[in-house]
Design a protein that fits this description.
The complex is a heterodimer of chains A (488) and B (88). Chain A has 488 residues and is of the alpha/beta class. Chain A contains 15 helices and 13 strands. Helix content of chain A is 38%, strand content 13%. In chain A, the strands form two sheets. Chain A has an eleven-stranded mixed sheet with strand order 2-4-3-5-7-6-11-12-10-8-9, sandwiched between helices. Chain A starts with a strand and ends with a strand. Classes of the chains: A alpha/beta (488), B mainly alpha (88).
Chain lengths: 488, 88
Amino acid sequence: MTATPAPELGSLAAIAACVRTGERSARAVLATSLERVRELEGDLHCFNEVTIEAAEADADAVDRIVRSGLDPGPLAGVPVALKDNLCTVGIPTTCSSKILAGWLPPYDATVVSRLRDAGAVAIGKTNLDEFAMGSSTENSAFGPTRNPWDLGRVPGGSSGGSAAAVASGIVPLALGSDTGGSIRQPAALCGIVGVKPTYGVVSRYGLIAFASSLDQIGPFATTVADAALALEVIAGHDPMDSTSLDRPAPSLLATLHDGVSGLRIGVVADFLSEESECGDAVVSAAEALAAAGAKVDEVRIPELLLGLPAYYVIAPAEASSNLSRYDGVRYGLRVDGPDAETMNARTRGEGFGPEVKRRIMMGTYALSAGYYDAYYGQAQKARTLVIRAFEAAYQDFDVLLTPTTPSVAFPFGSKVDDPIEMYMCDLCSIPSSLAGHPAASVPFALNPEGLPIGVQVLAPALGEAVMMRVAASLEASAPRSARGPVTP
Amino acid sequence: MARLARLALDDDEVGRYAVQLSAILEHVDAVRRLDTADVPPTAHPFPVENVLRSDIERPSLDRDSVLSQAPVAESGRFRVPRIMGEAP
């Protein structure tokens, strides 16, 4: 353990304010970020590609707008990192998979355009577990990302590169995607804030699909206010995504500091196992919220424990269907064969890594004739039970509190050979994914070894504003040392 | 299962995945055994309706830029190995 506090980059609003007034150029802000990349990337491996030239061109464009007297937007000059499953025109988008290595998307994801339109400057594409399947980035075809708090430990996953890039102070903002916890879990393990919005609040257009009924894009930042601002920018209806909710982006900053007085907060007892340091942090968080005026009670919601097994049927089932498009015909890798079917199978056998193959086979099995009702059909009904249990709990509570993860960041190699052990990382984050509800992880404590612990705030659909209010209150009562950025 | 999923695996992989997939199936067995009489399935968190746009012509992706990413393209098309057996 050698991590030390890193130099503060300033809030997103502060960076943008300096750039908008011309006090500091976007190019100068970018230079600081790139300097940090040079210093740390060798140790951390946050990025699959750092796009220096494109970033410099974007920063120059922001500076030109400022000089011409116009406003580049609320994220003017803010350097951002993008998970490498978000499509970027002309910039390789790989999903950390050999099957897509070198692929150049013909279009930008909607979130990428929205960030650029707000003045943000993308500096590169971050590492992930292949096709976002995993909880450690160890499933990346290009090698793992390391946790800036302890280089011998995983940063979490699947959005581990984005989390580590923010936690090490390379960028103040990054985007990830969350299917069963892939934003919240790495945020918790890296001591930063991670938000999974309500399903449909952020457009998935240009997000390479893993499990389409669960995938959502969301921000990583070091503070709740920064995450809230970023979410306001990327959210909102998009006609290019048929599951995008037809409503304006939520307003979060206006009520962020309204406090928690009178709010009813439920601590989900089912996720508080004995002798768990993550559970202890939730108990302390609940006490802090009570002290701030919230009405806090324990609640038992045993149906949420159905989430994990239901998810590990539904997500692989959807993945097996989504990933059938990687067939060696239209993009990416092809391994030749005498006929199309052999070519397809060889391409996929060589192009996909072990976890992706496992999930494709699991999903194919769950959807196959004879097993469909027993597995996929039953899992969909379990999903209904999880949603109903949440509905009942939200009769009595405005938000719910759980640990984000069952444990702190774990050493490399400790779970990679045991898929079930790895899947358990998602225990507390999966239920709100199945329900399509928003959830946020807030860094709240350090364990005795100095590793960060996150507390998860859950809210009903479209409850982002109240969720972020509670998150801000938690942040205010957490020790400053519990959150990044840190220097490894 | 690998054949159905179009995955060419070697013998080692087949053995390893057989063991791991059995363990995963055992883990998700809680779902299979659940009493779900009268519980409707959920395929999607919110009701999804077909979304239509007005029928107005607009540009789509450029053909050449799309084909430039294909492993093999020829005469404005994706080229693939033969998909059917020899004629009898």
